[in-house]
Design brief:
This protein has 87 residues and is of the alpha+beta class. A 4-stranded antiparallel sheet has the order 1-4-2-3, with helices on one face. 29% of the residues are buried.
């Protein structure tokens, strides 16, 4: 199973709080791959709204996405595109 890891910067002015976190989880949940989000020493399930909110990722925070599964590349690309949007 392919495993891809990529460091990204959260560009949304709200960071990954409330609505942006919900959209992130909605995108992640479309895929079969396991998705882990890491900020500092904290790792959470990318398909868990509570986990994403607990990270407290603000705008310009660096996070690491680890995606493992048959659709890992497609999932990572869509999530990276979402995180790079400044809206």
């Amino acid at each position: 199973m392919p495993k891809i890891e990529k460091e990204l910067v959260v560009m949304n002015p709200q960071g990954l709080h409330a609505r942006p976190a919900a959209i992130f989880v909605q995108i992640a949940s479309k895929y079969d791959s396991a998705i882990t989000v890491q900020k500092g020493n904290e790792k959470v399930n990318g398909k868990s709204i509570m986990g994403i909110l607990m990270l407290g990722a603000q705008q310009k925070s660096k996070i690491i996405l680890v995606v493992e599964g048959d659709d890992a590349e497609v999932a990572l690309n869509e999530l990276a595109e979402f995180l790079s949007k400044n809206e």
